[in-house]
Amino acid sequence: MEKLSPGLYIVATPIGNLGDLSPRAADILSRADLVAAEDTRVTAVLLRHIGTKRPMTPYHDHNADHVRPQLIARMATEAVALVSDAGTPLISDPGYKLVRDARAAGHAVVTIPGPCAAVAALTLAGLPTDRFLFAGFLPSKAKARAETIAELGAIRATLILYESGPRLGATLAALADQLGDREAAVTREITKKFEEAVTGTLPVLAARYADAPPRGEIVIVVAPPGDAPPASEEDGDAALAEALTRLPAAKAAGEVAKRLGLDRKALYARALEMKQN
Ligand code: SAM
Question: Which residues of 198-235 are buried (b: 16+ CB within 10 A; e: fewer)?
Fold first, then answer.
């Protein structure tokens, strides 16, 4: 077997179905000098599946700062593969600092792309895919979660969130409370035997899961905000009254027309009327 050139190899692994391990990922894993794994017991099962045994070292949130310099040093002469328990390393998993430091040390950094629960969920949800925002896990404390939802809710993009079964009901309730009746999908056990995608509005999904926490791994996908409702005559009057405190009638009408999408001529006539009264 030809030796791999030294450097860092970021290897995506299956998120459930072992058949999703790419031939290239299997090849790199069988030839790596060292496999840095989130949990070496989990990765040992994968390596057994492809009929190989490689030296492994744990690399996870609790030891990363300590282990990273040693891994960086070894990359000078050895091929180090980084894997997480499932899916793509670095995505809600450790790794970005390893990539950063490997690059800074001048080592080669190679990616072997593959399964990622966020993207797989997006493909199942049937919601717009042209613009999406992956936000990982929401904070578990109610106040921090509400602040994060408020921030995410203003973004014109489909939202992708990771979640666990026990927390799903509370998270959907908070999303429904703050984002209203947006369409959403709860995707579960992707690529596994009980894969499913349950779609509906956030309030409907919140009611469904309120007292029935599902088993398994979950990704929530939420549609982007709809178009704002058209501005009413009252909205126009209020905006015009405020603009007239700063601007002459023509300019005020122009500004409000642009901002609220209303007819400029009608607003100008209304502005003159308002000035007379
Ligand atoms: N790096 C991984 C990836 O590329 O998807 C994600 C790791 S993150 C620590 C684990 C979370 O991913 C789970 O809590 C769940 O939200 C989601 N997840 C992983 N596998 C999944 C699957 N088969 N079905 C649904 N969600 C999954």
Answer: ebebbbbbbbbbeeeebeebbbbbbbbeeeeeeeeeee
The CATH H-level superfamily of 118-222 is Tetrapyrrole methylase, C-terminal domain (3.30.950.10)
Q: Is the CB of 91 under 6 A from ligand 1?
A: yes
| Mean pLDDT in residue range 132-153 | 96
Cβ of 98 closer than 6 Å to ligand 1, yes or no, is no
**Is 116 near ligand 1, meaning CB less than 6 Å away?**
yes
Considering only CA atoms, which of 46, 45, 70 is closest in space to residue 57?
Answer: 70
Q: Hey, which of 10, 11, 15 would you mutate to test ligand 1's pocket, going by the most ligand atoms within 8 Å of its Cβ? A: 15
CA pseudo-torsion sign 41, 42, 45, 51: negative
Q: Residues for the chain: how many in total?
A: 277
What is the distance in angstroms between the CA of the first residue and the CA of the last residue of the chain?
90
Choose which residue among 92, 116, 191 to substitute to test ligand 1 binding: the one with the highest number of ligand atoms within 8 A of its C-beta: 92
Q: Residue 259 — very low, low, confident or very high, per pLDDT cuts 50/70/90?
A: confident
Separation of alpha carbons 41 and 45, rounded Å? 7
Specify the CATH architecture of the domain 7-115.
3-Layer(aba) Sandwich (3.40)
pTM: 0.85
pLDDT at 229 > cutoff 80: no
